[in-house]
C-alpha cells in the first residue's frame, strides 16, 4: 500500500543549520489533506549523513515518494542524493522542491533520477502531485510542476496561484523533527552568525515580496500575503509551550511591508510576555519603519535588525532594480 512519504534535506551544511521549515510546512499541509499518509523527515546535515546513508534509510523505510529540497548551491547535493536513492529504490518517485529548482528547473532536472520539480510555493502543488499519484492518474498536467517529456526536454507547467491567505496553511509539523538536537548541535542553527541563545526557532509571519530585485529568489511570489496576528501569536505560544525556546527569528522577506500588521504582530508578542529575544536576519525595509514600530520592537525583545541596503550608488540600485 502506498502510504509513506519521506522528506529529505540532503547535503552538508558546515556552518548554518536552520530548521528545514519548508519541509515541515509541506508535511503539515499534506497531513491536513491526506491524513492517512505516513510522513517522515531526514535532515542529512543535522546528522552529517552521506548520500548513500540517506539512500539506505530510504530503502529501509520503503516510501513510495521522496521529496528533496535545496537552494541553487545545494543542487549537487540534491542530485547526488537522488542518484543514490534511485540505485536502491528504482520504483520510488523522486521530487525536488525549493528555491534551486524554482530558479532553474532545467539545471536540477538534468539529473535523470529526479522525476518532478515543484516550482514556487510548494504546499498545494505537492499535495496535488501526491493525490494524483495515489489515485493512479497522470500528474503531468498539474500546475506548478516541472518534468521531462519522453524526449528528455524539461517542461514547465502553468504557474500555480499562490495561497491567498497563509493562515489557511497549518502550523509546520515540528513533531517530525527532534528539536532538541538542533538546540544542542555544535553547528550554528540561526540564519545569522549573530545570535544570543541556541534555543532558537524561526517563524514566517508573511509570504512574498512585491519588489523585483533581480538577485532575490521568487519562491513565495511577488505578492505580499500576511498571516493574521492571532494565528502568528498562537504559533509562537505553541512553540514556547512545547519546546521552551528562547530566541525567535522572524524570517519574512519583508516583515514590515504592511506596517500596521507589523505593529499588531509585535504588540501581540509583547502581550504574550514570553521574554523572548527576537531578530530579523532577512532584514526589514528601512523606508517602511517609524519610531512607534521601533519602540514596539524594543518592548518585544528585538535585539537585532538588518536593513537591506545593497548599494549606496543610485546606478547600482537601478541595475538590480532596487525599488524604494
TrEMBL record:
CDD domains: radical_SAM_B12_BD. Residues 2-140 form the B12-binding domain. GO terms for molecular function: 4 iron, 4 sulfur cluster binding; catalytic activity; cobalamin binding; metal ion binding. The keyword Iron-sulfur applies. Its cofactor is [4Fe-4S] cluster. InterPro entries: BchE-like (IPR051198), Cobalamin-bd (IPR006158), Cobalamin-bd_sf (IPR036724), Methyltransferase_Class_B (IPR034466), rSAM (IPR007197), rSAM_horseshoe (IPR023404), rSAM_sf (IPR058240). The keyword Cell membrane does not apply. Keywords: Iron, Iron-sulfur, Metal-binding, S-adenosyl-L-methionine, Transferase. SUPFAM superfamilies: Cobalamin (vitamin B12)-binding domain (SSF52242), Radical SAM enzymes (SSF102114). It holds the Pfam family Radical_SAM. This is B12-binding domain-containing protein. It comes from marine metagenome.
Amino acid at each position: 500500500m502506498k502510504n509513506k512519504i519521506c522528506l529529505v534535506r540532503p547535503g552538508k551544511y558546515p556552518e548554518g543549520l536552520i530548521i528545514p521549515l519548508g519541509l515541515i510546512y509541506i508535511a503539515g499541509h499534506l497531513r491536513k489533506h491526506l491524513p492517512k499518509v505516513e510522513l517522515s523527515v531526514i535532515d542529512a546535515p543535522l546528522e552529517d549523513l552521506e548520500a548513500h546513508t540517506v539512500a539506505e534509510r530510504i530503502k529501509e523505510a520503503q516510501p513510495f515518494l521522496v521529496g528533496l529540497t535545496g537552494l541553487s548551491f545545494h543542487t549537487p547535493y540534491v542530485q547526488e542524493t537522488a542518484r543514490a536513492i534511485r540505485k536502491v529504490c528504482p520504483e520510488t518517485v523522486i521530487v525536488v522542491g525549493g528555491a534551486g529548482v524554482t530558479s532553474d528547473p532545467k539545471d536540477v532536472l538534468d539529473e535523470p533520477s529526479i522525476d518532478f520539480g515543484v516550482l514556487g510555493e510548494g504546499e498545494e502543488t505537492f499535495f496535488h502531485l501526491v493525490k494524483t499519484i495515489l489515485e493512479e492518474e497522470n500528474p503531468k498536467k498539474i500546475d506548478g510542476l516541472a518534468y521531462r517529456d519522453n524526449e528528455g526536454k524539461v517542461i514547465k507547467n502553468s504557474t500555480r496561484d499562490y495561497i491567498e491567505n497563509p493562515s489557511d496553511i497549518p502550523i509546520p509539523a515540528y513533531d517530525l523533527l527532534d528539536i532538541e538536537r538542533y538546540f544542542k548541535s555544535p553547528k550554528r542553527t540561526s540564519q545569522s552568525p549573530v545570535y544570543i541563545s541556541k534555543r532558537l526557532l524561526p517563524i514566517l509571519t508573511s509570504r512574498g515580496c512585491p519588489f523585483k530585485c533581480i538577485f532575490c529568489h521568487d519562491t513565495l511570489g511577488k505578492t505580499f500575503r500576511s498571516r493574521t496576528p492571532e494565528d502568528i501569536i498562537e504559533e509562537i505560544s505553541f512553540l514556547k509551550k512545547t519546546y521552551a525556546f528562547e530566541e525567535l527569528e522572524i524570517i519574512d522577506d519583508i516583515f514590515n511591508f504592511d506596517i500596521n500588521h507589523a505593529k499588531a504582530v509585535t504588540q501581540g508578542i509583547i502581550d504574550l510576555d514570553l521574554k523572548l529575544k527576537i531578530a530579523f536576519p532577512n532584514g526589514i525595509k528601512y523606508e517602511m519603519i517609524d519610531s512607534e514600530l521601533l519602540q514596539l520592537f524594543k518592548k518585544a525583545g528585538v535585539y537585532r535588525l538588518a536593513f537591506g541596503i545593497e548599494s549606496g550608488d543610485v546606478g547600482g540600485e537601478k541595475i538590480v532594480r532596487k525599488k524604494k
